[in-house]
Design goal:
- The protein has two domains: 1-72, no CATH class; 79-349, no CATH class.
- Helix content is 56%, strand content 7%.
- It has helices at 79-108, 115-136, 141-144, 150-156, 158-173, 194-227, 232-249, 260-284, 287-309, 313-320, 328-339; strands at 18-23, 26-29, 38-43, 46-49, 174-176, 182-184.
- Strands 1-2 form a two-stranded antiparallel sheet. A two-stranded antiparallel sheet has the order 3-4.
């Protein structure tokens, strides 16, 4: 029998001593590691080693593991399962959009460039993505995980907020005089009506929620499970691949009538944005941060254009996406490198998505 400062040994279990009283109903099993007992139910599938119970850290976390200890690698999803999840998500996404477009042409006859159509068509897409996350991937915790916090996540993604506010200011207050020089003044007139309301709810649902849920919630998490969410290399691969896929998806705007040069500029820039958003998601562990940032950016780009010109979706995209957008991938890539710098990488592994 040990003294009162050490764990008490109980009845051996499968040949291994039992330490201490049960915690939360879970008996403590295992052989000491480097002289430190093993406590509590495994966290994220990894046993927690460290100091005795009276050294428990706040929130029920135990002291760091002994020096040199490395937890076993997280389970890897099979390549086949990962491919099936990603391909099925993409096929269903475009399949639902195609089906709804045909139903609209027959029954609803909403103009193809209307924000109203964008909103209504995104409802079945959102339902499909929710089912994919909860029923197929069995990761319902994606919707509720706080990760490292919502507001800290906004700080991580602060560059996107800065870019969004800059775009809003430029579109509302910057004008060009007869000599082609920029001038600054209040807009002469602003329109806010039914179309702008459809724009707001359409952008929030289709871009902010559906696109982020698809590329960060489903695809990035599926890739991270395959390559190793417990490693920086696996996480980085998932961020880059999902970001490139996110950019390429915007070729769909060709079908809506956006000119090819504008679409190419958008695809390149949005690829950088997708990589950036992947880094923000992996640093924050909170999908709601991505919902907010993406919605806020698109609203700051599209809403002022609609209010000042009355443009529909296609006209707004054509006017707001210029060849200068090609530079976006370099800016986003630089900011992403900063977000994933070595001294903050521990943020990538302080939460769990199950």
């Amino acid at each position: 029998m040990e003294n009162n400062n050490n764990p008490q040994y109980g009845t051996p279990v499968n040949g291994a001593p039992q330490y201490g009283a049960p915690m939360n109903g879970a008996p403590q099993y295992g052989t000491p590691v480097n002289g430190a007992p093993q406590y509590g139910t495994p966290m994220n599938g990894t046993p927690q080693y460290g100091a005795p119970m009276n050294n428990m850290a706040p929130g029920g976390q135990f002291a760091p593991p002994p020096m040199g200890y490395r937890p076993p690698p997280a389970p890897r999803t099979s390549t086949l399962r990962t491919v099936i999840i990603i391909v099925a998500t993409i096929v269903l996404y475009f399949g639902i959009e195609w089906l709804f477009a045909n139903l609209n042409a027959i029954f609803f006859k909403i103009p193809n460039t209307s924000y109203k159509l964008q909103f209504i068509g995104s409802i079945p897409v959102a339902a499909m993505l929710i089912i994919m996350v909860m029923a197929v991937m069995k990761k319902k915790h994606i919707f509720t995980a706080k990760g490292n916090g919502f507001f800290p996540g906004l700080l991580v993604g602060g560059y996107l907020i800065f870019g969004a506010v800059s775009s809003l200011f430029t579109q509302l207050f910057q004008h060009t005089d007869a000599n082609g020089q920029p001038t600054y003044s209040a807009p002469e007139s602003l329109t806010f009506g039914t179309e702008q309301i459809w724009l707001i709810i359409g952008v929030i649902l289709s871009a902010g929620i559906c696109e982020e849920l698809m590329f960060r919630g489903v695809i990035l998490n599926a890739l991270r499970d395959r390559f190793g969410r417990d490693t920086f290399k696996g996480t980085l691969l998932a961020i880059i691949i999902s970001g490139v896929m996110f950019g390429c998806m915007h070729f769909i705007n060709l079908r809506a009538g956006v000119p090819l040069p504008n679409v190419l500029a958008q695809v390149v820039s949005v690829t950088g944005m997708g990589i950036f958003m992947g880094a923000v998601y992996c640093r924050s562990g909170n999908i709601k941060v991505c919902f907010f940032l993406h919605s806020f950016l698109d609203l700051c780009i599209l809403l002022p254009n609609s209010m000042t010109t009355g443009n529909d979706l296609v006209s707004s995209l054509t006017q707001t996406i210029t060849p200068a957008a090609f530079l976006g991938i370099f800016i986003y890539s630089g900011v992403t490198c900063y977000l994933l710098r070595k001294d903050v990488r521990y943020d990538l592994f302080t939460y769990d998505i199950t």
